[in-house]
Amino acid sequence: MRPALLVTDFAGTTMRDDGTVLAAYRVALNEFEIPFSEDDLAARRGASKRAVFRELAARVHGPDDVNAVAEQALQRFEQALRQEYETGEVAEIPGAQNALDRLKRGGVKLALTTGFDRGLLDLLVSRLEWGTLFDLTLASSDAPAGRPAPFLIYRAMIELNIGDVRQVAVLGDTPLDLQSGMNARAGWVIGVLSGAHRVETLGATPHTHLLPSVADLPRLFGLD
Question: What's the rounded Cα separation, in Å, for the pair 49 and 55?
Fold first, then answer.
């Protein structure tokens, strides 16, 4: 049995992340004197970037200022990321495109979701030459709240006309990815060990499967 729809995360799950996102967080948070720890950043991998800056800024700014400071820090974060992604290396998780192609040929619809804004998402999809690979791409602004809320998953279901969440597989490399899949009641909630977290962390988060990487999906669904 295989899903009708795969909803997959981006950085760390299908695209290689060599620390670029964390480096951009550090730049923006330090410039705007927003206190943070490395544990703060690790725990928020996969979240809406706007939500992360608002949450951390609220530690030192009152309600009247927090949104403005968070938006300025978010813009600096996106600028730092864009500078790196426009000129630096952008690469897939080894075997990602081949695995996703196999699923697509097997009749599975593909939706790519991310906590990045639309501009960054489109830039990265273009650089990876994935413009025709996915049936749908969703940025952080395409849902009222990011992970662990299930709204990006539901938006993908609506856009791609999938009526039964039990026919949906959710794939990601962070606890927030898995939590969003469980909150959606997806039929498959699959963690991959190619990104931000190791088996000790993902294994402690409710899931249906853990895999080394996205490259192992075809075997899971009998498409190898």
Answer: 10
Contact call for residues 32 and 161 (beta carbons, < 8 A): no
Which structural domain, as residue segments, surrounds residue 76?
20-87
Does 96 lie in the same domain as 195? yes
Among the three residues 38, 56, 87, which one is the final residue of a domain in this structure?
87
The CA-based dihedral angle spanning residues 24, 28, 34, 36, taken in that order and rounded to the nearest 10 degrees: 10
CA 180 to the chain's CA centroid: 11
Length of the chain: 224
pTM: 0.87
Residue (of 173, 182, 181, 180) closest to 201 by Cα position: 173
Residues 185 and 168 sit within 8 Å (Cβ to Cβ) = no
What is d(CA 213, CA 118) in angstroms, rounded to the nearest whole number? 25
Same domain for 98 and 49 = no
pLDDT tens digit string along 152-169? Answer: 999 999 999 999 999 999
